[in-house]
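To the team - adenosine-5'-triphosphate complex, inputs and output below.
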Amino acid sequence: MVSMDKLVSLCKRRGFIFPSSEIYGGLNGCWDYGPLGVELKRNVKAAWWDDMVGHHDRTTAPAGAPSAFDMVGLDCAILMNPEVWEASGHVGGFNDPMVDCRETNTRYRADQLLVFRMEPVDSTTATADQSLFASPGEAGVTPDDDLIAPHRKRIKAITKKGGDYRLTPIPDALQDDALRARIFAPGASEPGTLTAPRAFNLMFKTHVGALEDNSSVAYLRPETAQGIFVNFKNVCDTTRVKIPFGIGQLGKAFRNEINPRNFTFRSREFEQMEIEFFCRAADAEDWYRYWRDRRFQWYVDLGLSTEKLRLREHDENELAHYAASCADVEYEFPFGFSELEGIANRTDFDLRRHMDSSGKDLRYFDDQEPDPAKRRYLPYVIEPSAGSDRAVLAFLCDAYTEDEVAGELRTVLKLHPRLAPIKAAVFPLVKKDGMPERALTLYRQLRQQFSTFYDEKGAIGRRYRRQDEAGTPFCITVDGDTLTDDTVTLRERDSCEQIRLRAEEVGAYVRDRVGG
Ligand code: ATP
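Output:
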């Protein structure tokens, strides 16, 4: 598996992702997509939009769906009336518990700080030590080495006394004053430097207009979903959608994460791709299973390795109070299995909250319902909620490969051709004998159909390597024979196999393989 260091370095070197405002030292939790990154991200978002919304066939039930359904889109403002966030529960409840280390001045999310102690496996050969240690990590995903790393010296001193030790997690230790006094925070020289956990609201606050007082407070949306709920009535009134139907939205979201980390995985500014799917309460669980499985399959179809993907159904005590069912699509990143997307049956919770708060009747009128007494109701909602930055990161991690070609090491991004930033590169074998002119003509034809790159500088092998690192699936070389029979060499990125085909066939060949 690729290490994060290698991936971050490739992203920087080849212009996929840069730290935001880097020349000023960056801004924690914010990232800029470079020339290759922006194409990759646009392709991920376009694939989502086309597959879920734009190319949806409203007349036929897709495989596995209980029936045919409608899909439409929205693009809502990032700033919304603050009452939206009161009603949704974000003002009161969108909190993470945070703790500070008074010695190192570092802030942590309490639920992501694992507290453990070194416990002797056999108390006759090793002695217990009362020290507790805290390390960043999420339960179940962090390898032991990472937990030990911030405390290596102190832990070595304990294990030097002899005997075998195991790491024993101490749940809820941060809430307990007496236990907290014994905890060594990462990088702290003495125990007891962590504060008790406090609630921290993740929404970014701003002011709208010239006055900066309570009456002008607004929030940068922490999710795109609420824009869909508050427009539910508008969509019903202006389109011919009938239940069941879905509304998709793609756009920026902002969360003042306590601890942005793992590259773009947890950022403060990111993009979401969300669907709210409205259906009858009685059918909600069927639709939940449909969306859960369909969203999982989407990542498989776009090339993520199935052995690194898993669907994790939440158990009862993990479910939010309003959710009837929830599952996460998780990917095995270099830092462990982590959430790519959540799919939840949110019941009628959100529409009910907005109906109560706004005083507007948001009930749907179902003219297909045979019983007149049941025709007006609040539909149930299935929400598949994905992040495009996390998806891009997963596609990059999965695509990163180091292999050997003709005795030479190469780095190649085996991205699905549909996602590849550049679909084809055109090279003249050498920069003379009319080859550049013929290659340029071909390049100009191809770039009208898909993103194409032209390069005539340097040895041909180096030009191939550069495109391998960029994830370009096809390289087309114009050589001496081209000038007589108009055939070119087309090299496939992953296998390095070369085929010969007529220049006029290249466009259709690449289009066919890029698909979508
Ligand atoms: P987490 O538990 O990782 O904080 P969450 O369960 O709060 O995520 P949701 O509120 O369900 O996340 O958001 C839906 C999706 O939005 C996530 O699956 C993820 O892809 C994306 N997302 C959420 N927070 C972030 C973030 N800070 N940076 C990047 N993507 C994010």
